[in-house]
Design brief:
The structure is a single chain. By secondary structure, this protein is of the alpha/beta class. The chain has one domain: TIM Barrel (Alpha-Beta Barrel), CATH 3.20.20.70. The chain is 50% helix and 11% strand. The protein has 11 helices and 8 strands. The radius of gyration is 17 Å and the shape is globular.
Length: 250
């Protein structure tokens, strides 16, 4: 499940990247909505947010792109964004806008557990999904409660902290994911820190999917910085994802 910053390097190229990833057979894509005061994102994704915001990318532009994309492709798209954006626009209004555009679900890293039930009901009523994040530091009972509120899948953070590429994944990841899948009875997708085909292979041996964000966003930005055009940038994204998916081959 690749993560793509919406509007990087521009929305037309983002749309082409989504189409190309759909052709590669990815399960879904996390579509990052740029935000100036990012909480869970590391320096790579924060940098991508700064670039897109400076170029004038806003929520309405992203949803318009999604609506165009949805007319041609059924690839599931999960909007990942700060709850501050949802709150500012209004929960009911924003969720309706996402539904109408063709967004399939929302991932809100900074949505508090106490506020989550109301949001979960609104999302469910709109026919969307709301995967919620479980941290390695979350106590067992809290993990169970979060999983109960989640829909679609449970998002397990491989590390406590911010997103970003890491050389090694925590040794307790396998045990934690197995326990979470067993106790929650829901699919578990792992994100944060995954950046190699070996990571994907390890994660998918115990989980239902792997999310790669910073490693892909970094490659897209590097291609842009090198002066590459849209065709080359799309190909860069495809080749990276293809290599990571190769970790799933027997």
């Amino acid at each position: 499940m690749p993560y793509v910053t919406a509007g990087l390097p521009d929305l037309n190229t983002t749309e082409r990247i989504l189409e190309a990833l759909a052709a590669e057979g990815v399960t879904a894509v996390e579509l990052g909505f740029p935000y100036s005061d990012s909480i869970a994102d590391g320096p790579v994704i924060q940098n991508s947010f700064t670039r897109t915001l400076e170029r004038g990318i806003r929520v309405r532009n992203i949803l318009a792109m999604v609506a165009r994309f949805r007319k041609r492709c059924e690839l599931p798209l999960l909007g990942m964004l700060s709850f501050s954006i949802v709150h500012r626009i209004g929960q009911e209004r924003f969720i309706g806008m996402c539904r109408d555009a063709g967004i399939d679900g929302l991932i809100l890293p900074d949505l508090s557990f106490e506020e989550a039930p109301q949001t979960a009901r609104m999302v469910q009523s709109a026919g969307l999904r709301l995967p919620m994040l479980v941290s390695p530091a979350s106590p067992p009972e809290r993990r169970r409660q979060i999983a109960t509120l989640s829909s679609g899948f449970v998002y397990y953070m491989s590390v406590t902290g911010i997103t970003g590429e890491r050389r090694e994944l925590p040794p307790d990841l396998v045990t934690n994911v197995r326990e979470l899948r067993q106790t929650s009875g829901r699919p578990v997708i792992v994100g944060f820190g995954i950046s190699t085909a070996e990571h994907v292979r390890l994660v998918c041996s115990v989980a239902d999917g792997a999310i790669i964000g910073s490693a892909l966003v970094r490659r897209i930005m590097q291609a842009e910085d090198a002066g590459q055009g849209p065709d080359a940038i799309v190909q860069t994204a495809v080749e990276a994802v293809r290599a990571w998916m190769g970790g799933l081959q027997p």
